[in-house]
Amino acid sequence: MTQVLEPKPALDKLKNKKIIFVVGGPGSGKGTQCERIVQQYGFTHLSTGDLLREAVQSKSERGEQLNALMKEGKLVPMEVVLELLRDNMIAKADGSKGFLIDGYPREVPQAKKFEEMIAVCNLVLYVKASDATMTKRLLHRGQTSGRVDDNEETIKNRLKTFHDQTFPVLDLYEKQGKLAEVNSELAPDDVFIEVRGALDKLA
After folding, report:
1. 3-state secondary structure 106-148
2. Which of 27, 45, 73, 78 could form a disulfide with 137 if both were Cys (CB 3.0 to 4.6 A apart)?
């Protein structure tokens, strides 16, 4: 489970692909923007949460190991998440213009390890909303979906974790001139105008 990732020749497939880290707090609306980027730009959206769930459901050896870790409340090792991302990126590279990496990196060491073992990130898209807006959206979602992690106390903790862990990542990429911030307080269509402005500069 904690084997060291070795660079593979297959990573050559990713050389000319644009790679965008999509960062935003819970309730920021980044999922909506990812869907629109996929539709308009032909990117592939990879969510680390979805990849982990799919691996567990696959009942593969790796899936069973992940399931055991999660049941014990343990964190999935960074190398395993990177392996899932790498394998999916290579598998989908031929039909993709680029990749939206959603939910990763959450911390600076994760960002550095991704670039060391997979590919260099071209852009970090920060879908920014105030804590008040994100809380309001999540509470509304909790009322309609019944999600247990969408209550006020849990939301407060999730937002604190997001800020503590992710702001150093944003700072890292801002210093590299790779950070694009979009205002998620706006209506979704207006947010996407800002998103397009950032992505069109990559062309």
Report:
1. CCHHHHHHHHHHCCCCCEEEEEECCHHHHHHHHHHHHHHHCCC
2. 27
pTM for the model stands at 0.87
Distance, CA of 114 to CA of 121 (rounded, Å): 9
Reference 25, options 85, 102, 82; nearest CA is 102
Total count of residues recorded for the chain: 203
Domains of the chain and any CATH numbers: 8-202 (3.40.50.300)
148 phi/psi in degrees, rounded to 5? -70, -20
Q: How many Cβ atoms are within 10 Å of 94's Cβ, its own excluded? A: 7
For residue 60 the two structure tokens come to: 């593969």
The predicted structure's pLDDT at residue 140? 84
Q: Both tokens of residue 132? A: 């008040």
**Tens of pLDDT, residues 114-152:** 999 999 999 999 999 999 999 999 988 777 766 656 678
